[in-house]
Amino acid sequence: MTGLRYVYAVCRPVGAPLQAELTGVAGAPAKMLHHHGLIAVVSDVPAQDFAEEPLRAHLEDLDWLAATARGHQQVIDALTAVTTPLPLRLATVFRDDSGVRVMMEEREEYFRRTLDRLEGRVEWGVKVYVEPTGEETADPDAAAAKPASGRDYLLQRRSKARAQEDTWQRAERFAGRLHSLLSEHADAARLHAPQNSALSRSSGQNVLNAAYLVPRTESEEFVERVDRTKDEEPGMRVELTGPWAAYSFVDPPADDEAAESRAQGAGSGRDEENGGSAGEAGS
Known about the structure:
Blueprint: E1 3-11, E2 31-35, E3 38-46, H1 47-50, H2 52-58, H3 62-80, E4 86-87, E5 92-94, H4 97-106, H5 108-118, E6 121-130, H6 140-144, H7 150-184, E7 188-191, H8 197-200, E8 205-215, H9 219-227, E9 236-244, H10 256-262, E10 265-266, E11 280-282
Parallel strand pairs: 5-11
Antiparallel strand pairs: 1-3, 1-4, 1-5, 2-3, 6-8, 6-9, 7-8, 10-11
């Protein structure tokens, strides 16, 4: 066995072939595998990297994982531009086309139901960050000065703590209002855990990390609505990303645990922007 099948997504037939120059994981070209009116988008990957044991080891290598995630996302982005894909988890690998077809057969009802729900929709991500401002202290000049006494020091500490608490309360209220507003103009919404600023390398503290499922035809209006909020609250930064495939709105099939128990390989990991945990290799 020299090659395996890496599966990116399942979708309905598209009206045009994939871009000839489109490459994905490990630089391999993506191709379409037809089965019962559905398509699995796949590419050939080397067993020396994607068989069970080497894959398990590679998933501990952050550089390798990042490169794989970029190749995976490149194919998903190309699909999202022309159709509604149901993205599969990072490093979903099978031994051959037959293994992919068996997986599609077992999950056909789930794929069709999910594609019906996502049809014509994309995911937009919205984050709100609290950025440091001069308003964090009631009197910045006094805070910069050396306290004259222990009492002055305690007063400065209390003043700063009150200012920070006020900032966080404003941020929570703003994030709550924004999430409620955007949820009203989306078909579905998901709240994710706030990102760790040290890991995400973003300035400020993340107080809202949400995803919204929006019809393509209403996306321009949705983007304009987000843009109008960007200067609404001083010290708050609103970040919009997308459009993405609807990672946040792809619920695992009910028989996923049973399918995992039959899988010949597994791993864990996460695409930073869109979800997608890594690894199953089937027969």
